[in-house]
């Protein structure tokens, strides 16, 4: 069962996407992820790229983020995402972008985000490509933080110039990577 684990939406049950195309983050990893970014969330503008059911972005809103942009292209995941936003009564602080994550990043324009959550399907180069585009289009605020969930074999190094891997955390077969702009220590 997926649910919001803390904050103003605590206990809200979430609808999972149908099928096996998305992989929900476990409560243990989700709790660890939000412990890492807890001081970055208050009034933050959040980007939940590869949003799936939206559980990470909704958890961020529940814990004090001001607004969240969810980007997802899968129809089943989008349906679950809409239901979950409604269940949390977060429509007025949520923006859903239906489409490809890379197209969104290329069109992001002057938008910038204090927290970027990256949880693409494991394998391949989706994560690396997303990090490169986020850096190229400069959508991470100077004092922002990026958190990536990945499999140990998904290589993100070397990071693009201007970004810094602050720390990696391992939870069984799942890794979280905390990335900031160079010069920022968190």
Describe the structure.
- It is built from five helices and nine strands.
- The chain has 186 residues and is α/β, with parallel strands linked by helices.
- The protein has one domain: Rossmann fold (3-Layer(aba) Sandwich).
- Helix 4 (101-107) runs parallel beside helix 5 (126-136).
- The protein is globular and about 40 Å long.
- The N and C termini lie far apart (32 Å).
- The mean pLDDT is 88.
Overall number of domains? 1
Which outline best applies?
A: globular
Which architecture does the CATH hierarchy give at level 2? 3-Layer(aba) Sandwich
The strand count comes to 9
Mean pLDDT: 88
- The CATH class turns out to be Alpha Beta
User: What would you call the structural class?
Assistant: alpha/beta
Order of helices and strands: EEHEHEHEHEHEEE
CATH superfamily: Vaccinia Virus protein VP39
Question: Could you tell me how far the N terminus lies from the C terminus, measured between alpha carbons in angstroms?
Answer: 32 Å
The total of helices stands at 5
Radius of gyration (CA) equals: 15 Å
Note the beta-strand portion: 25-35%
Poorly predicted segments: none
Provide the helix percentage.
25-40%
Instruction: State the major sheet.
Output: 7 strands, mixed
